[in-house]
Specification:
Largest sheet: 7 strands, mixed
Distance between the termini: 46 Å
CATH architecture of the largest domain: 3-Layer(aba) Sandwich
CATH topology of the largest domain: Rossmann fold
Bound molecules: glycine
CATH class of the largest domain: Alpha Beta
Length: 351
Amino acid sequence: MKSVRVNAKSKAYTVYIANDLLKSAGSLISKITGVSKAAIITDDIVDALYSKQLEVSLKEAGFETIKYVFQNGESSKNTDNLVAILNFLAENRLSNQDMVFALGGGVVGDIAGFAAAIFMRGIKLVQIPTTLLAMVDSSVGGKTAVDLPFGKNLAGAFYQPELVICDTSTLSTLDNEQLSNGFSEILKYAFIRDFELLNRLKSNKTLELDGIIESCVKIKRDIVELDECDKGIRNILNFGHTFGHSIEKCSNFTISHGKAVAVGMAIMTKAGVKSGICERHCYDALISILQMYNLPTESIYGAQELYNAAISDKKRKGDKITLIIPEKIGKCILKTVPLSEMRTLLQLGLN
Ligand code: GLY
């Protein structure tokens, strides 16, 4: 079993990565927190596949379990569903000695994590990601949120889990599209910090997913330990996300996060090349590896639509925004620019 220790300022915890870990979830968590009431929050797809295993494991360790299931998809990451989860926790008389288990992909982790952060001003949370994207990114680092009609993740909190359990056997039920979504975030890590990871991804015949997840979690760990609350260097994890979120929003969330981020990375890298920040071969390498992982590289939306969506994103700070632009593979810079310059760079990245 691989494990990565995250020493965030607000809490230290371990991310475990291995096959068949759901079976051990109860014993892993009871060693850290003791036993209590466990509220499993999940979506309908993951429920049918994995709730039973988790329930059995928690019961064997001595937990009492209850479960809340909602409809899968980004459209469930809203304030109505958040309030329904909070009411479910209250109706079942959870106290701050009890625990929320977020079992699922990014949507489940974000909304269940936010519910745990605000229920009784915070009850313990265990993240059990079941998608590649959630394992390498959203389950680690404590970002929790719901979407508002004006944009993605506009209401949320930083709230670190007690433990993250990545059972890589759950990846076997993902379709190619969901796997590509995860690879989009993995490629992000390679481009911001890890040239060697890119080489491993290029030779994908020998991909060892546990090791790749571990590499991404270690990069994220290093960044979160420096800047838990996203005031500086953590912004680098948003490479591709500014215009990625715009694309998701313009598509009414019918374009997945991973695909949107892939296009966002291509736009920013092309803008970097055209403005003399980025080496040309870096852009060529990005496009070829995105294509290798069946990810899109071009936006179907124009500059004005993407700009309008970007200015209501939470990454805007007043009339400025911080963009993440690669200089070369494994190294990105943070560039804080006025919105007018963002508009110019966006146009360069689209042409
Ligand atoms: N997904 C970006 C971050 O956690 O900061």
